[in-house]
Amino acid sequence: MGKTAQQVDLVRNEPRYSHLATPSLALVQKQSPDYSSSHALLHPQHSNISFAVRPDRSVSYFDPVTSLPNRNHIFGALDEMIVSGVDDCAVLFVDLDNFRRINNSFGHEKGDSLLLAAGRRLQRFVTDQEWIVGRFGGDEFVVVVHGKRDRTTLNALAEQLVLELAYPHQFEGLSVSVTASIGIACFPGDATEAGELIQYAHTAMYAAKGMGGQGYRHFRQNMAAHAAESLLIEGRLRQALESNEFSLVFQPIARAGSNEIHIVEALLRWTNNRNEIVDPDQFIPVAEESGLIRDIGRWVLQEACQQASQWRRTRATPIVVSVNASPLQLANPKFCDDVQAAMDAAGLPPDLLVIEMTERMMVEEDAITSANIRRLTEMGVRVALDDFGTGYSSLSYLTRYQIQSIKIDRSFIGNIEFDLRARALVQAIIGIGKSLDVRMVAEGVESQGQAAVLESLGCDYLQGYLIGRPVSAEAL
């Protein structure tokens, strides 16, 4: 980050705003664009402009990529605002969702260009000389709103920011969009110190991300408790691998109409150093947010391959092991190397390993993820698409990649016995898979009636409590 980017058609022409010539903590003054038309606000025109980063006037107080006030400036200006006796103000913490995809697909120089574009879009909302727009770091920005702002007004502003940032950038012939998550904290209601205000807005931003992103949340006190709990879990996670606190259980997947178990899904379990079982819903999101999922995922791959290799040596019929891959793993250029290393160390043939990825990963793929999916197939590793049918309309990835298995999400299975519409939908999904010569697996099968219907519809495999709960390797 920080390199001068080439001229690209990534943002619209916008006025150049003057920045402070000296590292003063006085508030940045901006010109207010005319937003008399809501159409102009939400659907601005784009044109080519140069993205050469302007010379940095103060390394201490300005960001070299966007020329916006940096973290030091934001903290200082907000603190000065509070000390000077401001009646009220609000901090909006803005984070670009999945920004890594831009860097992975187009490189850091183009990523810098998009950061500059995002910063300029935020600047267009400055309507008061005492408002602050700055880059906090990475793909994070802060907007400080001064003056009487009730919740309704702040909501409207946050909605406008989300819409503005999501409007597509024309990028080398492609239309590139990034969404944003925003957290809001208010002075003096939420906090009375600059550091706390920014921290609480940051916490609320992560709550918005937890709701799927592309939205906003106001800070609430229980969010602080949740954030503290997440930090505690993260700290313990860092020690868990070294302390051998993780283990794998395996859920069987049976061929429809029989009890034959040829496939199992490896599932991660964590028993911490106090002998407490930590729910995966608690620690997996923390592992993903912190990046620890890369190391944990590598361990899961190694253990799953070792177990599959042992079954190959000790059972008459080998068992295929299916391992879930997180978006961060698939976006890692070395992911396939990790897979190959795990198979080599275990002496496992690639046809006994399945890598599962969610449908959302396929829809939101970047260049590295695409390359990894193709390389897995070339290596002979099977690729399965998990949670199929959960709301994403694009099916083009089914023709672009050699998907060997599709797992129908459990949400479609619950009412399949009695709901004709649910049954018709599952039949359509199975038909799509059959037309592409893909194995179909139904998740969440809990009754004999569901199993019978799925078998009659031509589903190949069943997974769920009817078939078997997750158990240790020894109990399988």
Characterization of the model:
There is one protein chain. With 476 residues, the chain is α/β, with parallel strands linked by helices. It has 2 domains: 38-219, Reverse transcriptase/Diguanylate cyclase domain (Alpha-Beta Plaits, 2-Layer Sandwich), CATH 3.30.70.270; 235-463, TIM Barrel. The protein is built from 16 helices and 16 strands. An 8-stranded mixed beta barrel has the order 8-9-11-12-13-14-15-16. Strands 2-3-1-6-7 form a 5-stranded mixed sheet, with helices on both faces. Strands 4-5 form a two-stranded antiparallel sheet. Helix 9 (293-314) runs parallel beside helix 11. The longest helix has 22 residues, at 293-314. The chain is elongated, with a radius of gyration of 26 Å. It starts with 37 loop residues before the first helix and ends in a 13-residue tail after the last strand. Mean pLDDT is 81; it is low at 1-58.
